[in-house]
Design goal:
Blueprint (H helix, E strand, L loop, with lengths): L4 H13 L4 H16 L8 H5 L11 H14 L3 E4 L2 E4 L6 H16 L4
Antiparallel strand pairs: 1-2
Helix pairs in contact: 2-4, 2-5, 4-5
């Protein structure tokens, strides 16, 4: 872990230097939701995933967008639709599912590095 920390910090700094357009933010949020629910027929408003709850989470850089979307999809609490029913997203409580999702989300973010 200690050996990978400098690379992680470097990658976070790269994420902070990448500004995403509104369209890219919506695309990121949509793709992240698809990672969370795989092939299930879930509809979620990307704007709900992108809404900043704290001042520190504001911004259009990749790191800020990543954090906002990650928090909503891991901790839950926002609405989604499945068919005609509207429900609340539940938190990921399974350690393995949480780790897998976060790994896939990180790879998604890395895809936005030129």
């Amino acid at each position: 872990m200690i050996e990978t920390l400098p690379n992680l910090v470097n990658k976070i700094n790269i994420f902070r230097d990448i500004s995403l357009s509104d369209e890219q933010q919506i695309e990121f949020a949509t793709r992240a939701a698809q990672l969370r629910w795989k092939s299930q027929d879930i509809t979620i408003n990307p704007d709900d995933l992108l809404l900043a709850e704290r001042n520190l989470d504001m911004g259009s850089d990749l790191w800020a967008v990543f954090n906002r979307v990650q928090e909503k999809l891991v901790n839950g609490g926002i609405n989604y639709s499945k068919g005609r029913k509207t429900r609340k997203v539940r938190a990921l409580k399974n350690f393995t599912a949480d780790m897998n999702f976060n790994g896939e989300l990180w790879q998604l973010a890395e895809g936005y590095i030129n």
